[in-house]
Amino acid sequence: MAACTQCSASAVIEDLDVQPPQTWSLGCATARVRAGDPMINYRSLNRDSDYAHILAGGSTQVLPFG
Length: 66
Ligand SMILES: [Zn+2]
Fold this sequence. Notes:
Blueprint: E1 11-15, E2 22-25, H1 26-34, E3 42-44, H2 50-57
Antiparallel strand pairs: 1-2, 1-3
Bound molecules: zinc ion.
């Protein structure tokens, strides 16, 4: 299983906006959402898609695209 590039936890998403794609654990990804800088263009690495739920419910910020 892939590991987060910010800490040693297992990664749940891969940020596709950077090259090479950067892996994030749920904790680190949640911190980004809370900080108002969520990863929008990402690939989920787990079937439960926990990050999608946090992205949908954890931020009041309107998506910058679309
Ligand atoms: Zn992490």
